[in-house]
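Bug #77: duplicate submission created two jobs. Keeping one. Sequence:
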Amino acid sequence: MYFTAAWDPGSNQLQTENSYLDQADKTSRDSPTQAKCLIDPTNAFIAMLLYDGIVTIMPLISNSKKKALGSFDFIGGPIPTRISDLFIRSCTFLYPHRTDKDPARLAFLFEDSQQRVCLSVRALDYSAGASGESGSADLENVLAMRDDIELGASHLIPVPGPVHGILVLAETKIFYFRDVDDSPIEQPLQKATQFVAWTELDEFRWLMADEYGTLYLFMLLLDDSKVSGWKMDALGKTSRASVLVYLDGGHVFIGSHQGDSQVMRIVPGGLELIQTISNIAPILDFAIMDMGNRSAEGQTNEYSSGQARLVTGSGVFDDGSLRSVRSGVGLEEQGIVGDMDNAINIFALRSTPGSKYDDLLLVSFINESRAFTFSADGEIEEQADCLSLRLTESTLLIHPIDEHHFVQVTPSSARLVDIESSMMLDEWSVPTGQSITSASASGTSLLIAIDGLELGIFALRGKMTLRKTRQFPEGQIACVHVSEVAPHMCLVGFWQSHEIVIVKADDLTTMKKQRISDDPTSIPRSMLLKNLLPSNNATPTPTLLVSMATGEVVTFAADPETMALSSQKSTVLGTEQANLIPVPGREAGLSNVFATCDHPSLIYGSEGRIVYSAVTAEKATSVCSFNSELYPGALAIATPEDIRIALVDAERTTHVQTLHVGELVRRVAYSPSLKAFGIGTIHRRLLGTEEIVRSRFKLADEVLFKELDSFDLNEEELVESVIRAEVKEDEGDLVERFIVGTTYMDDNEQDDAIRGRILVFAVVTGRALRLITELPVKGACRALACIDGRIIAALIKTVVIYALNSSRLQKLCTYRTSTAPIDLAVHEPTKQIAIADLMKSISIVTYRPPSSDTPHETSHKLEETGRHFQTAWSTAVARVGVDMWLESDAEGNLIVLAQDPHALTADDKRRLRAISEIRLGEMVNRIRPIKVTVAPTAVVAPSAFMATVEGGVYLFGLIAPAYLDLMIRLQTALAPRVASLGNIPFNKYRAYRSQVREADEPERFVDGELVEEFLNLSASEQEQVVEELGAVAQEKGGLEGIREMVESLRRLH
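Kept job's structure:
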């Protein structure tokens, strides 16, 4: 299938020029290398290599004979032509010696039946057809042929005039042929390598990239206008290139599938990185890390909030990395105020009474403060003396009391300032030898802590009046807060206590105490009482947020009158304390909260719940609202290096953080209790001309991914599977262990040869790995799982259950599979195990341990209770519902299989039926089931995440039965209305397709991306769609109901 597209600079979108044409041929063998599309240097022909031994020719046709050479009006129809050259490694059009006379020539690098590498040149004989008819083409005329090319040859590069010819890239040499029949000019490489991509700089120079991420500059050397040799220099290291594009001006684009794509500039002495384009493909494995929900209330759907993270093992070898994928709020940077190191606080003010805009930023440092004014046209000027501000020491608080007054609190004093006159109206200073350690203000009240031992409250009405001071038996004060939501009360947190004290604002007497945590390290460090959630009542219920030193944020629903606290919830943002800063919300009367810590987050209310969204401000130390005339609705952000102005995105998007590992991350397992990852890696390096591959199992910290410990596997041994499981040791209590399955790369084919190992690790004091036991096995351990405290291992043609007794693995029972088991999915309550077979789809076995009810049965058993009898090249499986399993195959399809335990016959009960199927178009490497709590009225219940070779992360959900018919009808109505690139019909694109069967449309599967396009239709089109849906749409609220339903689906991600 192919189509042509052009870039529209007006809309900044690709536009379809020629609709798709399907070139699928079931009788032909796929090309052994990637499908190729070649363009003749004279722009006369396009050649496509889709199938082995077939070259599809398409003429580029001009309606006028007077048009310039190389220009055309449209692309002619495809003409397949057969050639005898098979197993083609590379091919290219050659530059013509005489543009107006020479026929188009194609060079082929291929492998013959005797495994010799050959080079041939064929002339293209094309005859245009009559009007309305396709022409004819053949490549039977072989102009030259030779079969003595180096075995490691991989690429052909055409050489333009004036020298002409062809370059052949091999592993140890590069050959230049003027004509294929002539003797080549060849030179050995300094060291052997495998070239993977190239691009032309000019007629004598090329850039080449190899398998190991090295970029080379290649140049032909001339003697009397003839090639005498060549020279090649290594420029530097890049991502492993899939494609190279020279952008002119010394810039080159390195497009990488195995790592991040890059834009590099060639500079004297090497390369300069200009831009990195993030890429998480291929995803070999991933783990669901729920940092946002470790309270005792159970798991909720936090992925859209940004605090739950997917951690993926991405990239290949040197480009290998761990990627933290979160859905959160982005910040669009507007500018940098200036480079200022170690700013600790930032505040905004309005220097003119009655102004609608902030025009002054006060930046606080360790021992000074600096003031900056902003003009309407963006001019920034630092002020040495401004509004009677004390700039000789750090600022703890700036609080605008009203349009005319504000209060500034520093460690030594608090001063009240009149904005219009820039005069200080009053000042209160601490006694000599003491200092203010924390402060909070609301309205006309100011609350301060002196030396952390004494609490004082001031009234701010034209002057500063100290109303009351008090000391507390609880010890040193850690933080204080007074809020406009409940101005008659104050909150106090202590260093030695795990509780907060609520006191009256008028006399500071204690009203009540609230215990926050039983953890002795959980010290309250920041508090905020704000209205985050809208309410149907006249008085909304405010939310109290308490930030702890451990990185937790604890929330309560608060009664503004009595300060009765309820609905305690705990959320972990990171490992450092979060500073809670209020910023304006999107709705009047509501606030958002910016939490600055090692994982900055925006906390806000949505759909009746509090949402924690990651923000792209990783280095933020402080923020404040900065609603300036030039940047309305912006935030000012202080970082350790500078001050930035940014706008908050209106919608959540996906954010990716990268930790470069430099090794292929093959497997990832996560332990919430250990707060660590178990990672199986494969490292590749060149030692001389030999490629050395070694594998390790690592333990890494959950936040910084810092390596805590590692275990080296044997030579020629590779990690295949890693899980974290709770295992019974000696049939006792469950203990947490990491289990690793391996395989050996050697070619020992003996029946009794050891082909892999199963290793069991414990994590001991100091978060170090200790090997508990190992078991050599005769098959590669492709997958691992755990059931009833016992280990399940998927070996070649066998699934085995082991028990861990006396630090040894004891075989309990086995199950023979059809070919090779690829993946396992376990459902503990029913003791069911789904086995994804390499070729024979899914089988379900039930584990039956000995039971006290049947004393004569003393053996463990694996009994097959279900099977899908169709052929499918499985890649992953997961349980997604009651007697429902989601399977992916190597051909890019998804299948939902269901088992009916209430069927009439035993065979029907055993049979797995495909109840839903769709073509995803990408091969899924891993499916991870999730358990989420959804509202009874939810349209979709998220059930699993899927990760693909192409770097896609998909959310799979089950549609509520009440909405199934509506969703399918909505998809059918939208399919012809939503245009796709190439005008590919939705049903054809998403229909199940394999080597043995093709469907006409997806079966009981809904593409969420297509359904969300309903919101992008015009109002009239939306009305037409709803009218087409008929009564089923009216039952759900008509147009408004459908719109709300689709909006709720969009919020899932």
